[in-house]
Amino acid sequence: MNYYPLFLNLKGRPVVVIGGGAVAERKTASLLRAGAAITVISPSFTPRLARWEAEKRIIAHHRPYRRGDLDGAALAFAATDQPSVNEAVAREGRRKRIPFNLADRSDSDGFIVPAVFSKGGMTIAVSSGGKSPALAKRIRDYVKDNLHPEEQRWVELLAQIKRILISKKVSPPKRRAILNRLAESDGAILYRKGEIQAANTLLLKLSGLRRTDLSLPAVTSLENGTTRGKGIR
Ligand SMILES: C[C@@]1(CC(=O)O)C2=NC(=C\c3[nH]c(c(CCC(=O)O)c3CC(=O)O)Cc3[nH]c(c(CC(=O)O)c3CCC(=O)O)/C=C3\N/C(=C\2)[C@@H](CCC(=O)O)[C@]3(C)CC(=O)O)/[C@H]1CCC(=O)O
Ligand SMILES: NC(=O)c1ccc[n+]([C@@H]2O[C@H](COP(=O)([O-])OP(=O)(O)OC[C@H]3O[C@@H](n4cnc5c(N)ncnc54)[C@H](O)[C@@H]3O)[C@@H](O)[C@H]2O)c1
């Protein structure tokens, strides 16, 4: 199945999780990271879910799912060990046009959740489309292990440059060309090796910006990290 990948802003949005076991706990953990307003409904809860309830990080209803539980939800997750209950949640989602996730199906007509790694401004999401979640997890771990911390600084730097180019009203095609050139360059590798001067020269050359344009905190903060040298001036 070719699912459509996207990144949702769930900050403050109501999300319902049906089930209180290991899988519900994992889905809830990632929903908490996204800042969703989470209600978990289940007769039993893992210790971690119970702790989140005690800490008021989630709302918990200690009872089985019943029709109507999805009312007002932006998203719903069915993660019980009862296929008939999960299917009932899906039916309610379909009827009310609330996107739903079925944890016990690999060919869901709802949405599926990828294996995710997120740090700094970069998120890596890997999906096998339901074929092998274990493999998606392994590939995510491989990318994670090979993503150098300097890459995360590089993202911040490119974000700064993008904002400067927009504020200077550089035309969109020119902006795109500059930012693609920078993303494809060896800049991150040079910073990683501590070759700050060479990296700065490359960055200024490719961006077409002047040194004075880049006297921004996120850029100069390169001086404070693992890299040595004088940073950008
Ligand atoms: C990525 C991750 C995200 C998350 O859940 O947060 C996720 N599963 C993870 C782990 C994992 N899941 C399973 C194993 C055991 C090994 C294996 O089976 O491979 C492991 C590995 C482990 O536990 O170590 C078993 C399993 N999973 C599903 C079924 C039903 C079925 O296949 O029929 C069964 C059989 C149940 C049974 O045997 O009864 C179904 C789904 N699991 C998905 C996502 C969606 C597809 C994503 C995709 O393919 O891209 C989908 C379709 C629906 C959904 O849940 O969204 C998360 C990584 C967590 C992390 O980040 O570390
Ligand atoms: N998607 C995945 O990543 C993945 C991974 C492993 C297993 N699974 C599937 O997900 C299911 C759940 O896995 P688990 O390890 O969390 O199981 P679990 O046994 O730890 O938890 C099941 C939870 O469902 C709750 N529940 C049972 N009936 C309910 C009802 N009527 N209303 C609300 N909650 C109810 C139980 O109280 C319990 O909290 C498995 O049966 C399996 O099919 C999915």
Automatic annotation (TrEMBL):
Its EC number(s)? 1.3.1.76
In the record, biological process GO terms are:
siroheme biosynthetic process
The pathway this protein participates in, as annotated, is: Porphyrin-containing compound metabolism; siroheme biosynthesis; sirohydrochlorin from precorrin-2: step 1/1
One MF term from GO for this chain?
ferrochelatase activity
Q: Which reaction does it catalyse?
A: precorrin-2 + NAD(+) = sirohydrochlorin + NADH + 2 H(+)
Which Pfam families does the entry link to? NAD_binding_7, Sirohm_synth_M
Siroheme synthase central domain segment(s): 120-141
**Keyword list, A-Z:** NAD, Oxidoreductase, Porphyrin biosynthesis
Instruction: Output the InterPro entries linked to this UniProt entry.
Output: Met8-like, NAD(P)-bd_dom_sf, SirC_C, Sirohaem_synthase_central, Sirohaem_synthase_N
NAD in keyword set: yes
NCBIfam families for the chain: cysG_Nterm (TIGR01470)
Protein name as it appears in the record: precorrin-2 dehydrogenase
Q: Which organism is it from?
A: Candidatus Manganitrophus noduliformans
